[in-house]
Amino acid sequence: MNDTNPLPPNDWPELQAGWVWLCGAGPGDPGLLTLHALNALRQADVIIYDALVDSRIMDWARSDAELIYAGKRGGKPSAKQRDISLHLVELAKAGKRVLRLKGGDPFVFGRGGEEAQTLVQHGIPVRIIPGISAGIGGLAYAGIPVTHRDVNQSVTFVTGHDQSGQTPSSLNWRAISEGSQVLVIYMGMKHVERITGELLAAGRPANEPVAVVTQATTPDQRVLETTLGTITQDLEAAGMAPPAIICVGRSVEMRQVLDWQSMMAGEAPRNLDPLGRGRPAEAS
Ligand code: SAH
């Protein structure tokens, strides 16, 4: 690591011995890290990080920091979760300055709440550093605004698995289908057929636009534009693999005008008015 201090002058908090900072690393692009996260990386003695933390971010750790990988993927039953939390407790009790680094935001489908609770229950002081969640920032990198005035006044974040690895049985798909114009589904790839089947059965149209964004914000980002009726075969044909965010709803059409990464590469927007409003976007 480069040991010159990259942080702008500020009264940055000190990561003290015996503390754990539970921190989001964003969806991938290191530029989406917060300054608090960078400040934490600069100070931590030990960093316990997840599979979804981009390796370029780990390059900003102190060169003598101990890096511990706590990868856990695919919604498998999480026998290790308790071990990770207790490991954090042990490290803090040993007087280390501990950084727990998680992909996206630590409190969005990331079990950060459980880890923080265990720490507090053991009397360990914690600081929470939010991060940019894949379901918002990852979609923005695909040119999809998670809300848009002409499309949705609500958005629902859904997880495709529960603790057992199954589609969450507690979810009322009909209520979700009827109640929210746009759905943002995390961890939805494994059960994509079941989830889209539930949405179709609940009355969402088969031609409703859907986008699947894999490895969002990284150099390997891929975006599939499809529909609820065709997603399963299109995904198979495209050979796309998790991690993926699935966005269901008309905001996906905005990508036709807002696919800024293609525009940066010199492509023209496909459609300047995909929602067919026929007026300047900013006119109210
Ligand atoms: N706390 C994380 C979510 C953890 S759950 C956050 O706030 O983003 C793991 C799921 O997040 C993945 O299965 C996938 O659905 C999503 N995810 C995380 N990073 C992603 C990325 N770079 N691209 C696409 N999906 C991502």
- Briefly note the structural class of the backbone: alpha/beta
Straight-line N-to-C gap: 50 Å
The average pLDDT is: 93
Largest sheet: 5 strands, parallel
CATH class of the largest domain: Alpha Beta
- Main β-sheet, spatial strand arrangement: 3-2-4-1-5
Strand element count: 10
CA gyration radius, whole angstroms: 20 Å
* Estimated share of beta-strand residues: 15-25%
CATH homolog superfamily of the largest domain? Tetrapyrrole methylase, C-terminal domain
Uncertain spans = none
Number of helices: 10
Shape summary: globular
Oligomer: single chain
Bound molecules: S-adenosyl-L-homocysteine
How many structural units, i.e. domains? Answer: 2
From the structure above, extract its key features.
284 residues, alpha/beta, Cobalt-precorrin-4 Transmethylase, domain 1, Methyltransferase, Cobalt-precorrin-4 Transmethylase, Domain 2, 2 domains, 5-stranded parallel β-sheet, 5-stranded mixed β-sheet, 28% helix, 17% strand, globular, binds S-adenosyl-L-homocysteine
